[in-house]
Q: What sequence folds into this?
């Protein structure tokens, strides 16, 4: 009988110990902060969708690479891909609307702008949340911006070699991206960030 009482007492003490340990862990702000930080980091790190590291040769702190043929963009932090996303570039069959290849630098950062212009395809006046210009030439100003008038499925899939249509066409030369990607780029980049536009 004494053995049973001792065993019952040991089990009770063990159960109380487990309860106290779990209670302390659940109510420990440091534990919660670490767990929350890890959870937030996992949720906010963008997922790479390509296996090739297009940033491998980057020796700069921050660089943006846009591939016209792949209709994709990579934000490089050194040789690491910080973010990558699909884009829509300019209508290649119109000289005024193609996205010019070359190396440029972001020279402005603005929010809540209306981008207006006209060319052989007509006129436009489009509100954007994020605007980061990187080039001025004889045809106008080129930059990165969101394009909320497009479906998410348009980015990376538009045929920029097709002529202008009301339904589906490339941009007027800018690099258009989904709203979340434009917000990321706006917050991550700065005036002077290098931009490389590849064919």
A:
């Amino acid at each position: 009988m004494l053995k049973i009482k001792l065993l019952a007492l040991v089990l009770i003490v063990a159960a109380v110990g487990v309860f106290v340990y779990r209670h302390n862990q659940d109510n420990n702000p440091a534990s919660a902060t670490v767990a929350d930080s890890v959870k937030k980091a996992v949720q906010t790190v963008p997922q790479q969708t390509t296996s090739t590291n297009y940033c491998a040769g980057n020796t700069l702190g921050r660089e943006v690479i846009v591939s016209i043929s792949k209709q994709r963009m990579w934000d490089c932090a050194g040789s690491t891909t910080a973010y990558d996303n699909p884009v829509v570039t300019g209508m290649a069959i119109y000289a005024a609307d193609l996205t010019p290849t070359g190396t440029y630098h972001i020279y402005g950062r603005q929010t809540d702008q209306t981008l207006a212009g006209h060319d052989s395809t007509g006129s436009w006046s489009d509100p954007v949340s994020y605007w980061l210009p990187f080039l001025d030439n004889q045809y106008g100003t080129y930059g990165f911006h969101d394009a909320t008038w497009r479906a998410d499925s348009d980015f990376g899939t538009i045929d920029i070699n097709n002529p202008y249509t009301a339904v589906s066409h490339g941009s007027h030369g800018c690099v258009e991206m989904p709203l979340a990607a434009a917000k990321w780029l706006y917050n991550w980049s700065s005036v002077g960030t290098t931009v490389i536009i590849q064919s």
Notes: Residues 1-48 have pLDDT under 50 and may be disordered. The first helix runs from residue 2 to 26.
